[in-house]
Prior knowledge:
By secondary structure, chain A is mainly alpha-helical.
Amino acid sequence: MNLLKPLLILIFAGSGSFFVLLAAVGLLRMPDLFTRMHPSSKAATLGTVLILIGTAIYFEDGAIAVRAVLICLFLFLTAPVASHIIARAGFLSGVPLAEETAIDELSDRYDLETHHLSCPPAGAEEE
Amino acid sequence: MTDHINLFLEIVLGLIALAALLGFVRLLRGPSLPDRVVAFDLLATLAVGISAVYSMAHDQPVFLDVAVVIALISFVGTVAFARYIEERLKG
C-alpha cells in the first residue's frame, strides 16, 4: 500500500486551498485597492500553483504534468503583469489610498497629464 | 484509499467555493471599478484551481485544458479592463 502519493496530494491540495481561501479573505478585509492586490496576486497564485502540483502528482502522467507546469508558468508570468496594469490604472484614475498609508511617493512626482515622472518632487524646485 | 482522497478533494472544492463566495462579495461591494477588476482576476484564478481540483475528483484530465484556456483568457480580460479604465480618463 503506497501512502506517499495520497499524502503528497493531501499536503499540496490542502495547503493550496488554504492559501486560496486566505487570498479571498485578504481581498475582502484589506482597506484599499493597492493592499487588496497583495492577496489576490500573490497568495492566490501560490495556492493555485500548489493545487496544480497536486494535480500533476495525482495523475502520474508526463503529458498532464507538462500541462500543469505550463499553467504554473503562465500564472507566474501573467499575475504580476495583470496586477501591475490594474494598479497603474487604479492610481491614474484616482482611487483613494487607505488612511493608514504612510507614504505616497508617486503623487507629487508623477504628472497625470503628460505621464512624465520627475526625479525630485514637483514642489522642491520652487524653494 | 481512493474514497478518502475523493472526500478530501470535495472538501478542497468546498474551501475554494467559499473563497469564490468571498471574492463575489468584493465584486459586488466595489467600491471602485479597479477593485471589481481585482476581484474578477481573483475569481478567474480560482476558476483555474477549481477545474484542476475537479479534474482530480472526477479523474478527468481533460479539465486541465479548461484550466489552460481560463488562465489565458483571464489575463486578456484583465488587460482589457485596465486599458478601459485608463482610456476612460482621457474621455
